[in-house]
Amino acid sequence: MRAIIIAAGRGSRLQHHTDERPKCMVRVGERSILDHQLEAYRAHGVDDLHIIRGYLAERLVVPGATYHHNARWPENNILQSLFCAEEAIEGPLLISYSDIVFGPPVVKAALSTEHDITLVIDRQWHRAYQGRHDHPVEQAELARVDQGLVRRVGKHVGPEGALGEFIGLTYLSERGAHQLREAFARVRQRLDLDAIFRNQRTFQKAYLCDLFEELIDQGVSIGAAPIDGGWREIDTVEDLHAVNAGWQSQDTPA
């Protein structure tokens, strides 16, 4: 099975930790963030790895992986970065942000779905935000869910009525991958990169969640795979210290 890992950005909020390495190569416990992801993937037979590189690309090396280069990583955002690997968006596959650690149970939740597009949603998201100052709740990609379907998702949603936080892990079936590519193509045809797309963001600076909402508005069903913890985002130095301080095993964040 295939996985695409979006790993082009620098991760400037990790300060000196990314001076000489990409964000996903920062160590959590005894291994890098990326190593934790790869082990969780391999536990479920995910071994067709595609990695989108940008910042310090030559230092992000995974034997057997296929690389895609985002030459404009300082200017764009996660949606444009993902589509630097457009030809690899063929389902079934998983797509993940590169700054999250999770264990095999989280991958299992993503794969245990009947939907063509499924987002992993953490219902216990608020626990990670206790004492978290450098990445406040306002920056969480929260999701409203009704009858197992995502109705709204993104940083604009807010805590009220939200089931939980989209962790940055998505499953796409063959049909779901086609729907995602087709939606992106339609937006690309009608908008310049500097035109406003959704939620006051330009198409160039759009998040993946913006495209998910575009699909929802077009009547495409997007499922929710709920989890209760078992993952962490490492976006800031504060996050890195918190995860390492609470580390209890090599596989799963505390």
From TrEMBL:
It comes from Lujinxingia litoralis. Residues 3-116 form the MobA-like NTP transferase domain. The lineage of its organism: Bacteria, Deltaproteobacteria, Bradymonadales, Lujinxingiaceae, Lujinxingia. One of its GO terms (molecular function) is nucleotidyltransferase activity. It holds the Pfam family NTP_transf_3. The keyword Nucleotidyltransferase applies. It comes from the Bacteria. Keywords: Nucleotidyltransferase, Transferase. This is Nucleotidyl transferase. SUPFAM superfamilies: Nucleotide-diphospho-sugar transferases (SSF53448). PANTHER family: N-ACETYLMURAMATE ALPHA-1-PHOSPHATE URIDYLYLTRANSFERASE (PTHR43584:SF8), NUCLEOTIDYL TRANSFERASE (PTHR43584).
